[in-house]
Amino acid sequence: MGSLWLGAFVGFLLTLALGWSFPGLGHLIGGFIGGVVAGLIARGRMGKGALAGFLAGIFGGMVIAIFALIGFALVGVTTGGIMGGLFGGIAGITVGVIAIMLALFGAMVSTIGGVMGGLLAR
């Protein structure tokens, strides 16, 4: 029996690596491949692979949202002082919310990949 959390973690790392290497479409392709790998590592039935793929996709979106918030706040602080940091933080929150909404699409793609990986591991 495979590990659900290990599969989700490895799928998340793969999604993050491919999404970082190829921005835009690479995140969706990385989510699919990460979901397949998560499903293969989770081993078992289709549902376990789907859950591992979904967790990998949703964690990837959350990490991107956190990086967006921190990045915009740091850019705001370095260019505009404290007020720039506040406005940068607000912009980072906005981009983070958009990233989380778009991460739902990535989670769906990762779930499909996880279903396929779970079926292949069966």
Write the layout of secondary structure elements.
Layout: H1 4-21, H2 25-42, H3 46-121
Helix pairs in contact: 1-2, 1-3, 2-3
Q: Which key phrases capture this entry?
A:
single chain, mainly alpha, 3 helices
By secondary-structure content and strand pairing, the structural class works out as mainly alpha
Give the uncertain stretches in residue-range form: none
* Quaternary structure of the protein: single chain
Separate helix tally? 3
Total domain modules = 1
* Main pleated sheet: none
Q: Per DSSP, what share of the residues sits in E-state strands of 2 or more residues? A: under 5%
In sequence order, what are the helices and strands, one letter per element? HHH
Question: What does it look like?
Answer:
This protein has 122 residues and is an all-alpha fold. It has one domain. The protein contains 3 helices and no strands. It has helices at residues 4-21, 25-42, 46-121. α1 packs antiparallel against α2, α1 (4-21) crosses α3 (46-121) and α2 (25-42) packs across α3. The chain starts with a helix and ends with a helix. The relative contact order is 0.22.
